[in-house]
Specification:
three-stranded mixed β-sheet; single chain; five-stranded mixed β-sheet; alpha/beta; 303 residues; Spore Coat Polysaccharide Biosynthesis Protein SpsA, Chain A
Length: 303
């Protein structure tokens, strides 16, 4: 179950070969209610001095959760991992080393897929064919995956801080691409380091997928939000002409073998629904982060 995987992921972080005084673990928890075993485990972790457990109330949004974690972070680096990953014990140590050696503004790591059998370590991970982010080769890149990306905290501070755009909805596809694009626009550099791979279990139950997935399958509302996010990214980067990017995604999905007859009609309806949702998003103007964090995304420490 996804909830138990969260506890396992946290245990990988507690098992790091890194002084506990030098790192903190911040869990921005978007699950309304855990089962009793997980609740007990998380409550027990709350006794650790370097653990902060924040619970979202009323609204789950991945970019907003990232922003909230950044707000309460204290270290020089902010490391993002998903709640369903497998890490090596030297993961944090190697992240810090990669920053120091490369001088990069962001350090990302290879993302490996789950093997057929349950993995015992990252060495059991599988590289997906054609996936550049699964290649164990250090190099400069333009972006990374949200489940294995780190930043200097300084880029989220100052007069023009970088933030994750909480207008990306549902499973928030493209939210990390957006932030890497804006980082590059201000001269930021991204280093992919082959010493910090992880296995992303990509569990389809829970997490930010809970908004648009059920029992591991996409719900109908997934597709309007999928197109909304592509519309949003395209318009942010290229203005009105950026709408073509979402149309390209529509064509790719429509040409797949599984899309025939009524499914194509449904996809067309989702496409225009996503466009309508974008208009609603822009009609609200630039959302005020303080308003959202205070009224729609309440986060507090468990009592």
């Amino acid at each position: 179950m996804r909830e138990e995987i969260l506890v396992e992921t946290l245990n990988y972080l507690w098992a790091q070969d890194f002084p506990t005084s030098r790192y903190e673990v911040i869990l921005v928890d978007q699950t309304p209610q855990h089962n009793s075993g997980v609740e007990e485990a998380l409550t027990g972790m709350g006794e650790r001095e370097n653990f902060t457990w924040l619970r979202a109330k009323g609204w789950a949004n991945l970019p907003a959760a990232r922003n909230r974690g950044i707000e309460v972070a204290n270290g020089d680096y902010v490391v993002f991992v998903d709640d369903d990953v497998v890490l090596d014990a030297d993961f944090l140590q190697q992240v810090v080393r990669a920053f120091e050696e490369s001088g990069a503004d962001s350090v990302v790591g290879p993302v490996l897929m789950r093997p057929e059998k349950e993995p015992e370590s990252v060495k059991d991970g599988v590289s997906q064919e054609g996936d550049e982010m699964g290649v164990l080769e250090s190099r400069w890149v333009s972006a990374g995956r949200g489940c294995n990306m780190s930043f200097r905290r300084a880029i989220f501070q100052g007069d023009n801080p970088l933030w994750f755009d909480h207008r990306y909805l549902g499973n928030a596809i493209l939210e990390e691409t957006d932030v890497f694009t804006r980082l590059s626009a201000v001269g930021g550099r991204v280093w992919l380091d082959d010493r910090i791979p992880l296995i992303h279990l990509a569990d389809r139950v829970g997490g930010c997928r809970a908004a648009t997935f059920k029992d591991g399958k996409r719900l109908p509302k997934h597709f309007p939000l999928y197109f909304h996010n592509h519309f949003l990214y395209g318009v942010k980067q290229h203005g009105v002409s950026g709408l073509r990017a979402a149309f390209h995604q529509f064509r790719m999905l429509g040409e797949s073998k599984s899309m025939k007859g009524i499914r194509v009609l449904f996809l067309g309806a989702a496409f225009f629904s996503g466009l309508f949702k974008l208009l609603v998003t822009f009609s609200k103007g630039e959302w005020d982060w303080e308003k959202i964090s205070g009224k729609r995304f309440l986060v507090s420490k468990p009592t």
